[in-house]
Amino acid sequence: MKIGYARVSTIEQNLKPQIEQLKQAGAEKIYSEKYTGTTTERPVFDEVMKTLKSGDTLIVTRTQEGKAYARKHDPSYRDGRPRKFTPEQLELAYKLRQQGYTYRMIEKSTGISTATQRRYFKEIEAKKKVNDDRKSN
Q1: Which backbone phi and psi does 6 adopt, to 5 degrees?
Q2: pTM above 0.85, yes or no
Q3: DSSP secondary structure string for all residues of 50-97
Q4: Considering the chain, what percentage of its residues have pLDDT values greater than 90?
């Protein structure tokens, strides 16, 4: 059986778009709840998980409505994951790289992964290039 689950986190938000998406995805039974995102308690979701049987498919949709609400009502809202490192920590890692440290050495001393270093260093280089281009024009 295909089971759908829809949730919004405020009274003002509308479940209809999610429910429509679940129906279009073939959900045969749909559970829904309006429950705050500030708690991990999800009574209806817990009920859904208890009713799932082997062979069932759980369908969960995602809309942008929650983000739009957060942007409108929370001035400090930011998309994506919170930053793990401060700009100062990343700048230190960049300076170490400029001094000849390897990515691995920087990772061991700062805890900043090689992937994060490469991504951040590319951003820095791109910003420097834009600034240099502006200065030369």
Answers
A1: -125, 140
A2: no
A3: HH--TT-EEEE---SHHHHHHHHH-TT--SSSPPSS-HHHHHHHHHHH
A4: 53
Residue 31 DSSP SS3: strand
The CA distance from 56 to 44, in Å, is: 17
**In one letter, which amino acid is 29?**
K
Are 107 and 97 within 8 A, CB to CB?
no
Dist CA 86 CA 123 (whole Å): 15
Q: Is 33 helix (H, G, I), strand (E, B) or coil?
A: strand
Query: pLDDT per residue over 50-86, tens digit each?
Result: 999 999 999 998 777 777 777 888 887 777 777 788 8
CA-CA distances (angstroms) from residue 66 to 34, 43, 56, 74, 103?
12, 19, 27, 12, 38
- Quote the DSSP letter at residue 83: P
**What letter represents residue 46's amino acid?**
D
